[in-house]
Amino acid sequence: MLPVSRIRYSARARRRGTRVAFALTVLLALPGLGACREDHDEPMLIRIATGSPTAVYHAFGESLAAILNRELPQVRAEVMVTAASAENVQLLNAGKAELGFTQADVLPADPGPDPSVVAVARVYDDLLHLVTTADSPVRSLADLRGRRVSVGAAGSGTKITVDRLLSVAGLGNAKVQQEQLGLDDSVAALRAGRIDAFFFSGGLPVRAVAQFAEHTPTRIVGLGEWTIPLRQNHSEVYVPRDIPRSVYGVDLVTTVANPNYLVVRADLPEALVREVTRLLMERRSELAAAHPAAGRMSPRSAIATLPLPLHPGAVDYYRASKP
């Protein structure tokens, strides 16, 4: 049975979801959403907030959207290109997206008793990359002092994590010349010599980093030693993880990682979220073909979404599927 702390969900949130679900009850009845729906009715729009087109969220989101569109005929799923985690949560809170991906460290430590955004699943871990060229003098975090560095786009989870990292390392307060660039712009700027290094937080492998390393001698700087200071000063979600040589063809390094969640508006109907959760788990091999990070999901790990509670539809699926 799922722990009580994982399924807390207020009566007010349930009432809010019931209002949205009222007109969709027949549409979303299990099994087979929409079997009794009138042909002229419009499908329900599911907007999935992702990230950069060359990053993991987008690849994962594109594959998930294709699965939802194929298997839930009364749903129309669309992928949104965003700055990633922080913007994704903002979009869900504003009712401008239904699903989205976010790093755990972007979320409030205490979401309160009635959060407007709740979890579907923990999907994989993001690893913080500090990327530079192989001939660069940047060999440690301290070597960024005085240099031009992309710290991630405004609204991204990367920016939040890097701000915290630079703070605990004593490199805040303009000690680094910071550029707020997205992943693709960061790669282009490093290639052109306009910056000395860039940060990006993503699941392995990050396609844009792999493409850069394929054509340019590359170094990824280890950050593992900063995991404990980050945990002590900010959040216990941070853990050390290795980036093996096999990923980018560069020397193995240990870096900082934190979990990624697929999150959902709390007012979405339970039956819909149950089906999304089912397809997320049952189509893992297809999702993994879009990006290997998706293949690391499992029902056992998926329920570990603290500090967010799971949506009742997700709870229903995990309970029913437990062997």
From TrEMBL:
InterPro entries: TRAP_TAXI
Domain of life assignment: Bacteria
Pfam families given in the database record: NMT1_3
SUPFAM superfamilies on file: Periplasmic binding protein-like II
NCBIfam families assigned: TRAP_TAXI (TIGR02122)
Protein name: TRAP transporter solute receptor, TAXI family
